From TrEMBL:
Keywords: DNA-directed RNA polymerase, Nucleotidyltransferase, Transcription, Transferase. InterPro entries: DNA-dir_RNA_pol_bsu_ext_1_sf, DNA-dir_RNA_pol_bsu_external_1, DNA-dir_RNA_pol_su2, RNA_pol_bsu_protrusion, RNA_pol_Rpb2_2, RNA_pol_Rpb2_2_sf, RNA_pol_Rpb2_3. GO terms for biological process: DNA-templated transcription. It comes from the Bacteria. Residues 556-623 form the DNA-directed RNA polymerase beta subunit external domain. Its EC number is 2.7.7.6. Residues 31-463 form the RNA polymerase beta subunit protrusion domain. SUPFAM superfamilies: beta and beta-prime subunits of DNA dependent RNA-polymerase (SSF64484). This is DNA-directed RNA polymerase. Residues 143-291, 378-419, 478-546 form the RNA polymerase Rpb2 domain. Belongs to the RNA polymerase beta chain family. PANTHER family: DNA-DIRECTED RNA POLYMERASE I SUBUNIT 2 (PTHR20856). Gene3D superfamilies: 3.90.1100.10, DNA-directed RNA polymerase, beta subunit, external 1 domain, RNA polymerase Rpb2, domain 2. It comes from Candidatus Levilactobacillus faecigallinarum.
Length: 701
């Protein structure tokens, strides 16, 4: 038998097959249901605690009582998985929370364990048992929080720009220019007002301060300042701006500067009401920090080391990758090109604002000097918007009109993220806790503060109801497709753009549904439904994984930049990291030492396929099947199929009825063993051993 072509490969203990593959497998496939299990484990370890820490402590209206969260624990489940199926019950465990009630008047502290309802548990197969039926929570693909810039062309062929600050929870902030090149801002989808009014409300009232901050050469800024006239001489410019904003947000109500300050603070600067989430802060910093914005610009000032005076870059130098590498350690410092602006005492936030500012030449008019303003160094823990973010985002907006900076593609997978089961549960739990918080406050004011206990204050009904509603009736909680093991596995790896906070079928256009170049290695370009949901429901690619921010990463083999040899070192890249590299295909021929056989190879550079010298290649694909999902990878000789037929084939495999006596396929791609193993349908021993006895009910190891 061994005289035949190919080589023998062992699957499990007893199955040996002949493989004709020519490409060395350098990376094992990951656990195919880890998108479900990892997310749920994160929720149980960290997400639930985050939730309680966000909502608590709860204080009463007079400040006499305070209810704090101490700890939580899950007890043993009432039923096992099989018993829950038999009894048409939930597979869940009682959640007990330890709460501490402090009476500030007497100093008395009462601690108590409070039952918070039964919390559904995930089975080892990544599913939930609800009322005896197995359900799967489908992961949702949504737009990431952050700041996004877009460009449109008006009817005269002139470009006009817009921007949107999207939080995870809270008010939207939108910027736009009109036909006369005047810039406006909209707060929370209300009527627009001149952009400079927002800057004045932040405490920079005079025209001179605004010109000093943003540079006086901007035509848009000059026209906006002309539009923003001082109407009421009795009010200062800051107070007038505050009242104008209040009038837009609360039309018809009596406007005062104090009520405007309180409203704006609640809308944007209160962490309980405005939440960017860690991912929003990460994306905002990546867009607005100075070190990400200098590349390709020509400096209009000389940059020197603040300690030694050594010149780092001369006026007139263009910032290349090499120059940026040299500047980066300085740009990360708190004393390099930092400017502190102090807002007036009438402003919404009166703390000094630290911005990082470097002068460059405009790309549209190389004579003109334009400042690039970064948002300083805001830590990732800050989940709400800061005045520095608003000012830096306005500067980015003005810079776009000078040809500096770039607009964003909302269909790029660097701007879309996955909300998996853990985050969806956390959001639902937050809704329940917020409803409960209101009840607790009301009960605090009614009950006698000396005798009240945490148990008497807590009403768990809203929390239990919101979790029950989520599992019972959410669009993303679905009965598991149990036709065959592949159907189960695919269902757990499904990504949906529909659901609460996502798109709707009717409003989704062609662009959202289309295959994007960033899908490569992240989402399968083949497997998607054929009906009205085409392109809105996708499947995770076979090697893809989700990082801590919810962005999809795919693995690549690193190519040594010194020797240009392909190493076995694996790096996982997100879509926006991948844009900086040139990546060779997995089938590029290699010598035994890892060097490329040819001097020129086919490679990808963003959305272009280029034939390039091996010296330019940074990475190489790990496997040809990393592009497609598990179901598509089950199709032998997939590359010879028409794409429409491959789509039907991938979908129809999930509908095949299993045999009573299963057989290994005569021809397969080798992924079927892994798919059967991870689907959870096959019995897998927890520890190694010898099978001693088998009957219809049990297997003894």
């Amino acid at each position: 038998m061994n005289s035949l072509a190919g080589h023998l490969v062992k699957y499990g203990k007893h199955r040996t097959r002949r493989s004709y593959s020519r490409i060395k497998e350098v990376l094992e496939l990951p656990n195919l249901i880890e998108i479900q299990t990892n997310s749920y484990n994160w929720f149980m370890d960290k997400g639930l605690r985050e939730m309680f820490d966000d909502i608590m402590p709860i204080d009463d209206f007079q400040g006499k009582l305070s209810l704090e969260f101490v700890d939580y624990q899950l007890l043993e489940p009432k039923y096992t998985v099989d018993e829950a199926r038999e009894h048409d019950a939930n597979y869940s465990a009682p959640l007990h929370v330890t709460l501490r009630l402090t009476n500030h008047e007497t100093g008395e502290i009462k601690s108590q364990d409070v039952f918070f309802g039964d919390f559904p548990l995930m089975t080892d197969q990544g599913t939930f048992i609800i009322n005896g039926a197995e359900r799967v929570i489908v992961s949702q693909l949504v737009r990431s929080p952050g700041v996004y810039y877009n460009e449109e062309t008006d009817k005269n062929g002139r470009p006009s720009y817009g921007a949107t600050f999207i939080p995870n929870r809270g008010a939207w902030l939108e910027y736009e220019t009109d036909a006369k090149n005047v810039s406006y801002v909209r707060i929370d989808r209300t009527r627009k007002l001149p952009m400079t009014e927002l800057v004045r409300a932040l405490g920079f009232g005079s025209d001179d301060e605004i010109i000093d901050m943003f540079g006086g050469d901007s035509e848009t800024l000059s026209l906006t300042l002309d539009k923003d006239v001082h109407k009421n001489a009795e009010d200062s410019r800051v107070e007038e701006a505050l009242k104008d904003i209040y009038e837009r947000l609360r039309p018809g109500e009596p406007k005062t500067a104090d009520s405007a300050r309180n409203l704006l603070t609640a809308r944007f600067f209160d962490p309980k009401r405005y939440d960017m989430a860690p991912v929003g802060r990460y994306k905002t910093n990546k867009k607005l920090m100075l070190k990400y914005r200098l590349l390709g610009n020509t400096l209009a000032e000389t940059l020197a080391d603040p300690d030694t005076g050594e010149v780092l870059a001369q006026k007139g130098d263009t910032v290349t990758k090499e120059v940026l590498k040299k500047l980066e350690p300085y740009l990360d410092r708190d004393d390099f090109k930092m400017v502190t602006y102090t807002p007036s005492d009438e402003a919404v936030v009166t703390d000094p604002v630290k911005l990082q500012k470097i002068l460059v030449y405009s790309k549209k008019d190389p004579e003109r000097v334009v400042p690039i303003i970064g948002n300083g160094h805001i830590p990732l823990e800050y989940k709400h918007i800061e005045p520095a973010d608003i000012l830096a985002s306005l500067n980015y907006f003005f810079n776009l009109q000078e040809g500096i900076g770039s607009t964003d593609d909302i269909d790029h997978l660097g701007n879309r993220r996955i909300r998996s089961v853990g985050e969806l549960l956390q959001n639902q739990f937050r809704i329940g806790l917020a409803r409960m918080e209101r009840v607790v406050r009301e009960r605090m004011s009614i009950q006698d503060p000396d005798t009240v206990t945490p148990q008497q204050l807590i009403n768990i009904r809203p929390v239990v109801a919101s979790i029950k509603e989520f599992f019972g009736s959410s669009q993303l909680s679905q009965f598991m497709d149990q036709t065959n093991p592949l159907g189960e596995l695919t269902h757990k790896r499904r990504l949906s753009a529909l659901g609460p906070g996502g798109l709707t079928r009717d409003r989704a256009g062609y662009e959202v549904r289309d295959v994007h170049y960033t899908h490569y290695g992240r989402m399968c370009p083949i497997e998607t439904p054929e009906g009205p949901n085409i392109g809105l429901i996708n499947s995770l690619s076979s090697y893809a994984r989700v990082n801590k921010y919810g962005f999809i990463e795919t693995p690549y083999r690193r190519v040594s930049w010194k020797t240009h040899k392909v190493t076995d070192k694996i790096d996982y890249l997100t879509a926006d990291e991948e844009d900086n590299f040139v990546i060779a295909q997995a089938n590029s021929p290699l010598n035994d030492d890892g060097s490329f056989v040819d001097d020129e190879v086919m490679a990808r550079d963003k959305d272009e396929y280029v034939e390039t010298s091996v010296e330019n290649v940074d990475y190489m694909d790990v496997s040809p099947k990393q592009v497609v999902s598990v179901a598509s990878a089950c199709i032998p000789f997939l590359e010879n199929d028409d794409s429409n037929r491959a789509l039907m084939g991938a979908n129809m495999q999930r509908q095949a009825v299993p045999l009573l006596n299963p057989h290994a396929p005569l021809v397969s791609t080798g992924i079927d063993y892994k798919a059967a193993h991870d689907s959870g349908v096959a019995m897998i021993a927890k520890k190694a051993g010898t099978v001693e006895y088998v009957d219809a009910r049990e297997v003894r190891v």
